[in-house]
Amino acid sequence: MTWRRLVSEDLRELETRRIQLQDALDAERSSQERNEAGQFATPAALANEIARYALQLHEQSGVSFLEPSCGTGSFFSALLNQLVDHRIECAVGVEFDQRFAKAADSLWGGKGLRVMHADFTNCAIGDPAVSLLLANPPYVRHHHLSATQKKALGEAVAKQVGLRPSGLSGLYLYFVLLSHRHLAPGAISAWLIPSEFMDVNYGLSLKRYLTENVSLLRIHRYDPAEAQFSDALVTSAVVVFKNEPPTDEHMAEFTFGGSLPSPRVVHRIDASSIDPATKWSRYIQGTSDAARGSAGRVLSDFFKIRRGLATGSNTFFILERADAEKMGISDGFIKPVLPSPRGLKLDVIEADQSGWPVLPSQLALIDCPEPIERLRESNPELAGYLGSADEKIKTGYLVSRRTPWYKQESRDPAPILLTYMGRGKGEKHPLRFILNHSRAVATNVYLMLYPTPLLQKYLDTEPDGLARVHKALLSMSADDIRDGGRVYGGGLHKMEPKELAALPAAAIVNLAPELFATDGGQLAFF
């Protein structure tokens, strides 16, 4: 039987059976178990989209195919469905989960796919070297890899491609790097992986591989508001490269949104200018390093940036102010704290005469340095409340490391805060800068911004300087914010302190160009 007859007669029935088997096998494991194993099945439409695009780049008519972590064989099925001017000379699928390996073999073993029940990171698939690789590797976070596994994987990568991955790398990164040994010269690889590698520190080794070892052809990042996997909290990207050294004239495409054949945004970047050490989201946005650095100053010149307080148990340590007063907790053992961003709609927080925020509901954070023996005498009501805490609270990681366990981290109120996570499309900002006139502190769902001496010089001479700085921060575009942070599935954006610190600060510089262009700033992270 020819491959063409197989496509026309059998493939639809086989694909229906494959999806049924996939659903049945997924149902045997809980969502938590599948998350820990990184098992997120590739949607059929997405597999076909990737296979069609990869075949357009495959210059030889004969295909030697490899599908790492093949599951039920979604990419092999898509490959058969997309064959027009190519023929499959050999095909291998590797799968670690015996249940899926058995399913793939039952479906495709008689159709030319040799299914190996093995760990792709240390198996030998034999000859010939492959000319086409399509993969959706397991998205296993580094927390679920043992120190022994990380060491073995790191040593294997160092031996095979001369790179040393970070210990924070997810398993998918090792899959990409360790696939290199199986690739024939000129082979086309297309990987469906989380887009976070473009912007996080542990992605450096993969970005170096894509710029130094092979020719990067394209990275397509799907719109985070249109998550490709309903049960994965990540944004997906397709990374396509050719197994040949990059040339001086080579151009790489960075695309966004829509589909792989019809993206909404396209940027072609000179491959020699792509820096592995920078955030690659800027190439998706079409923002060059030179443009980002044109202002000279970044936010760390003007602010010390700290995370908000991590209480260890917000539900126990944070009370309604009225409830705390009714219980008899002394004012000296509580301090005002801001509600979560969801419950805070204001961009400017005013204060009452006592410094508490003017909000419909005022929240109080328990913060007491006295030992429990003394507290039973000075404030027995608080001592009684603390005695009601269950062991789970008192033995929690953060709480158990404090003395006394109900003493909070030291934080001064911050005049400006940034929401740590949020959503926003188009012109809508995903994160919010908030001006805080109160003495309320904030929890770790915020970043707290404190003026450096450089900025304080300006504030000391301008009565409304803080309001002007806040307005300057609000003038930053939504793209500036999105480009500086990271994004997860469903359009969830997040900003880490170092990412915020690196954002360009042209709007603040423009408030006092002579002062800010000549004086030195300070850099601080906590």
Description:
The protein is of the alpha/beta class. It folds into two domains: 3-214, 3-Layer(aba) Sandwich (Rossmann fold); 299-518, no CATH class. The protein is built from 22 helices and 20 strands. The strands form four sheets. It has a nine-stranded mixed beta sheet with strand order 3-2-1-4-5-7-6-8-9, with helices on both faces. Strands 10-18-15-17-13 form a five-stranded mixed beta sheet. A three-stranded antiparallel beta sheet has the order 11-14-12. Strand 8 and strand 9 form a beta hairpin. The protein starts with a helix and ends in an 8-residue tail after the last helix. 40% of the residues are buried.
Quick structural summary:
The protein has 22 helices and 20 strands. It is α/β, with parallel strands linked by helices.
Number of domains: 2
Distance between the termini: 65 Å
Tell me the structural class: alpha/beta
* Strand residue content: 15-25%
Mean pLDDT: 88
Helix content: 25-40%
Major beta-sheet overview: 9 strands, mixed
- The strand line-up of the biggest sheet is 3-2-1-4-5-7-6-8-9
Overall shape: it is globular
Instruction: Count all strands and give the number.
Output: 20
Rg over CA atoms: 27 Å
Multimer state: single chain
Give the uncertain stretches in residue-range form.
1-5, 228-233, 288-295, 518-526
Number of helices: 22
